[in-house]
Design goal:
95 residues; alpha/beta; 4 helices; 16% strand
């Protein structure tokens, strides 16, 4: 039995293949909020990168809901869950 893993996706992975979230089998995925912000900036244009940014956003819209940030959303049978990491405040110790 293989152990379930957690993958953190960056912008480049999504721009390479906007359907990549379905290719990590039973493993869970985390998308940092900064990646979604970067994709939003890249959506305008006619090149492949812009197309993939738009298509990924559409795919995420199909799946999204409040659970995306807290509980994660299942990606389908035999697949893991997708989470968006909204970021955390810096520790007061760093101030």
């Amino acid at each position: 039995m293989t152990k379930k893993k957690i993958f953190i996706l960056d912008t480049n992975v999504i721009l390479h293949d906007y359907r990549c979230i379905y290719k990590f089998e039973e493993n869970d995925l985390i998308i940092p909020i900064v990646v979604l912000e970067e994709l939003d900036k890249l959506k305008k244009g006619t090149d492949l990168i812009s197309y993939n940014a738009r298509e990924f956003t559409r795919e995420l819209d199909k799946l999204s809901g409040k659970k995306l940030f807290k509980e994660g959303i299942p990606l389908g049978e035999g697949l893991g869950k997708l989470y968006v990491e909204p970021g955390k405040e810096y520790s007061k110790k760093l101030s």
